[in-house]
Fold each of these.
Amino acid sequence: MAKKSTTKPDAIETGCLPSVEVPSTATASKKAQLIGMLHRPAGSTIVEISAALGWQAHTTRAAITGLRKSGHAVKTARPADGGAGLTYRIVSKPQGEPDRAPGTEA
């Protein structure tokens, strides 16, 4: 049985690989975008989230389930106008925010 060569290809040795540009500003992750959409006072629908993030409806529902499992209080509501679909919204405060009774000042 012949032994495999351990030499590197010429392109790696000479540094002729194409350069990769890293964007100067980091974009928000899709999970962060999803959380932002769900924090809106009116919430978001599956259709709105799917269109904004480029996901299919079942992927969007799975991501919302993942947020629930990680501790986010995601609530669903029927649209007030009687339209089809559900509106999803995060109603809990972010982690690390102190508990305060209503009407108390900081």
Note: Helices lie at 10-14, 30-38, 46-53, 57-69.
Amino acid sequence: MTAPLVGYADRISVRSGEKIAFKVSSAGPGPYNAMLVKIVRGDANPGGPPPKLEDMSDLFDGRFASREQRAWPGSYALVDGARNAKLPAALGVEALIWPTLPADGPQTVVSRI
């Protein structure tokens, strides 16, 4: 089952003056409202201090049309001829990983046979 509204930021955090973008997928029938809050204190520990949010809606507050943007968890790619490819000394890889089958044992994110 897919949640009707799913979103993420393109960066984990930003400094004052830096830009951040939000990606949202909405399977709802109509528009959705979104506003920006700054998490000043977000300790989820029940024994800790309560969460504290700062309203930043003067920077971002609006109503947006719903648009579903699907992700395909479990998808993969095979690259023919990769076995003989010469790789650079350093290689960067980005992956969105949603570990839904951890009980299945070790799994591969990137491999070269």
Note: Strands lie at 5-9, 22-26, 32-35, 37-41, 52-55, 61-64.
